[in-house]
């Protein structure tokens, strides 16, 4: 019984760390993953490097092609997209 009383504060510290640090980080990662998976042609995005451009092609191998200026296209790893500024409407039909 005495040993359990000594470990109780340690267990509480781990529980608080999980609730305040680990769990919110996991939620943020899931939200980012969902945002990256929902990328499609025409979306305006910001990369982690600060480049703003429009998605011109979504590739299968974890890359997208982003047009950062008229006629200037760069290949970007999907996971480095920091934010989607504007979404395009899905094409009907």
Please describe what this structure looks like.
InterPro entries: Preprotein_translocase_YajC. Part of the SecDF-YidC-YajC translocase complex. The SecDF-YidC-YajC translocase forms a supercomplex with SecYEG, called the holo-translocon (HTL). It is a single-pass membrane protein. The chain has 93 residues and is an alpha+beta fold. The protein has a single domain (3-86), classed as SH3 type barrels. Helices cover 39% and strands 32% of the residues. The chain contains one helix and five strands. The protein has one helix at 2-37, and strands at residues 44-47, 52-58, 63-69, 72-77, 81-86. Strands 4-3-2-1-5 form a five-stranded antiparallel sheet. The longest helix is centred in the first third of the chain and has 36 residues, at 2-37. The mean pLDDT is 90.
Question: Can you give keywords for this protein?
Answer:
single chain, 93 residues, alpha+beta, five-stranded antiparallel β-sheet, rod-shaped
The quaternary state of the protein chains shown equals: single chain
Order of helices and strands: HEEEEE
Number of helices: 1
Order the strands across the largest sheet as they lie in space.
Answer: 4-3-2-1-5
Radius of gyration, rounded?
Answer: 21 Å
Give the mean pLDDT: 90
Q: Would you report the number of β strands?
A: 5
Tell me the fraction of residues in β-strands, as a range: 25-35%
Q: How helical, in percent, are the residues?
A: 25-40%
Which consecutive residue ranges, at least 5 long each, have pLDDT under 50?
Answer: none
